[in-house]
Protein: Ketoreductase domain-containing protein
Organism: Orchesella dallaii
Amino acid sequence: MGIASEILSSLTNSTSEGEVANRPIRNALTVLFWPVALPYLVYKFVNMFRRRFGLKLRPLEGKVVVITGASSGIGESLAKLLYEDGCRLILASRRIEELERVKADLVRSRTYGPVYVPAIVQLDLADLKSVQSKTSEILQIYGYVDILINNAGMTHRGDVLGTSIEVDQRLMSVNYFGPLALTKGLAHSMVERRSGRVVFVSSVQGKFALPFRSAYTASKHAVQALADSLRAELTDLGIKVTVVSPGYVKTQLSMNALTASGEQHGQMDASTASGLSPDVCARKIVDAIVNGDNDVVISSLLPRVAIFLRGFWPDFFFWLMANRARKELNLSS
Ligand SMILES: NC(=O)c1ccc[n+]([C@@H]2O[C@H](COP(=O)([O-])OP(=O)(O)OC[C@H]3O[C@@H](n4cnc5c(N)ncnc54)[C@H](OP(=O)(O)O)[C@@H]3O)[C@@H](O)[C@H]2O)c1
């Protein structure tokens, strides 16, 4: 308090006559001094620490990041975190009004440090021809992309024999061929710059298959294989590939799922409703990007055990899945 009073008395330049008159001002300034000075000193100290030890508190600051499926769920949560981290975001999906809502929420939110107004691109991953032209639109925004997050996706409910081939094709288009086309378009520019990261939001169902989800699980297995090949091919060119495989996350995924005949499932499944929060899932995805991880499972213990059993005791796993299929059939009949 002594130093503060000394500084303040020199600031108020008090004389013996003026001292009495100045006392309320001086008291007010003394009270205000520490609340202002303390955060300032902490800020200065943290900055000095960062410069001294090369520590970056916002390691992705300024990166150009494309997020597909940014209009809801995990993609929206990713947008929130990466906006706060000072990334230059390009938000993509089909529903432009939802992207505008996400953008408005971001711009209104309180952040610390520099931020950039997100760009929006309307993108339908099922329309492969348009995906190719959209890559040029995306590249025109900043001239390059640092990180592509292939997050958009959809699921389905139905048995293999009863699901129409159009539904199978749609799932493969949205979850596999669309992201593949986008990755081809954008990764070329990463290769030219010898820098970049491609992230695939897969699923634990990209590592083992559940009954009555064949199209979804097949598309996610395809994504896993694509990512593993791509990683091997691009490692020496400076491009990193990350696959994240969440278990159940509480989003609109099951509501938007297609039935065997291609209608909207329209139900929030109990497993999805009790899943991880999308914000928590997004935080783990951002951590995986920052840490440079290749392959990350974001789930509770049970899916991890299933992954283990599928790899090391497949016959037992197949027996468990047959039981599960039998139970689901009994429940639905
Ligand atoms: N929720 C889970 O339990 C869970 C678990 C594991 C993995 N995942 C994966 O997480 C990712 C995100 O899903 P979510 O859970 O956040 O579900 P969500 O809330 O339904 O979000 C799906 C997103 O994908 C976009 N999308 C759907 N079809 C598209 C298309 N044809 N073209 C472009 N964008 C399209 C949607 O936007 P528009 O409708 O505006 O196009 C939406 O933003 C998916 O890849 C999903 O497989 C989810």
